[in-house]
Amino acid sequence: MRNALLLVIVIALLIVPASLAQDDDKPTVAFLKWGDSSNVGLAEKAILDMLQVYGFINEDERRLLDEERSIEGENINIFYGDALFDRTEANVIIERALDKDADVLVTFTTQMTQIAYYAIREFIDPPKLIFTVTSGPYITGVAEASCVKPEFVTGTVPVTNYEDIVPLLLMQDPDMKVVGAIYSPQQRASEVGVARITEIGGSLGLTVEAESIIVTPDLYQAVEKLADKGAEAIIIPIFTFQGFQLLLSLSYDYGLPVLFSAPQNAYRGGTIGGGFFGLYKQGAIAGNMLIAHLNGDIDIADTAIYESDDFAFAVNLDAADLQDVEISQALLDGAAYIVENGETEQGVSAQYPEVEITLPEMPLEERRAADLAFLAGLECTPEMIAEQQAALEGG
Question: Which string of b and e fits 86-122 if b means at least 16 CB within 10 Å?
């Protein structure tokens, strides 16, 4: 009897560590957000759709994740962190993710990507960093080019072509002469954006008057100054800030249409939104990278940053009415969607302001083959790296 009892104890001691080891092998992924926006929501939905279709999360876990609640799931642990547009809070949630031994940091927006990168770049063995909805990885030092980057970094970049955005002002009013721009010196992407807007505006015969803001109340003075300088409209470069509704309210007071550098912002109340259109797709590609990494199908070090410059614009007739502005027929004819009475005929919603917001239906094996084939096209070869490095040195 005693020998039998000892045998049971020994077996138990062998089994328990094996079970714990299995839990230790379960990956932990941190979703780190600078703050909530429809842009982030589109990419976030796509990543969760990918994790669900590949069986990493089940329906019950998905319901919790849709509420942005962290989970310790059957197949994966997911930690949610939202910085609420605050740099101090961003560092706090990154530290929490690292305390949970996150294997992968999935970051949304340039601000969070930059903060996370600088927090882990000196680590001997940093967690992988996969970013999305991040327009400025190159200007913030996260990477130099799509294949000239740290080995632990990859992601997706929505390319903002101001060459396509600024002319929308003249489509609205061909006689426009003065445009106001608002940016933040704390956000490098917005500084670069306003410089490009000024350059392109000049080539089109537009005078661009720029005002900077640090905190939301600065908008009062910024808009007043732009109105005093004769601005006939306001243009906002890629720029994350909390004063969206205040800016719109001021635009109603001064009768100034506002052009945002993202179509999604037309549904949030911007008069015109023009720029990159395909954030759900960006999230799906980031999700593809994440899943392939977790399955051991790719090496992040050899996976290029994916860049896309899909362009579209949308208009909001409700905002135009409040500003006493009549939208031109040229804009109405070319818009991807038009918001009127809070709705669109295309079925686009405020939460997910794009037309395509679901994964295509296909068998899992077919999807896996297609996804891996796509990622194979992103492999960084020595020749690509050398070519990009030479271009950087020559530039």
Answer: eeeebeebbeebbeeebbbbbbbbbbbbbbbbebbee
Low-confidence ranges of the chain (pLDDT < 50): 1-23
The alpha carbon dihedral of 275, 279, 280, 284 has a sign of positive
Can you tell me which residue has the tokens 């899943």? Answer: 291
Looking at residue 356, its pLDDT comes to 85
Q: What is the pLDDT of residue 24?
A: 56
Same domain, 150 and 68: yes
Among the listed residues 369, 387, 379, the one whose alpha carbon sits nearest the alpha carbon of residue 299: 379
What six digits make up the tokens of 193? Answer: 């954006």
- Count of structural domains within the chain: 2
CATH number at residue 103: 3.40.50.2300
Number of H helices, E strands in the chain: 16, 14
Domain region containing 71: 26-159+279-308+361-394
Half-sphere exposure in the Cβ direction for 117 (13 Å, CA): 25
C-alpha to C-alpha distance for 1 and 21, rounded to whole angstroms: 31
Q: Which residues contact 135 (CB under 8 A, 6 or more apart)?
A: 110, 157, 158, 159, 160, 189, 238, 276
Tokens 């961003």 identify what position? 90
Same domain (yes/no): 141, 287: yes
Say whether both 92 and 133 belong to one domain: yes
Using one digit for the tens of pLDDT, what is the confidence trace for 267-325? 888 999 999 888 999 999 999 999 999 999 999 999 999 999 889 999 999 999 999 99
Q: Phi/psi of residue 144, each to 5°?
A: -100, -35
This prediction's pTM:
0.81
Q: How would you label 278-289 residue by residue, b for 16+ Cβ within 10 Å and e otherwise? A: bbbbbbbbbbbb
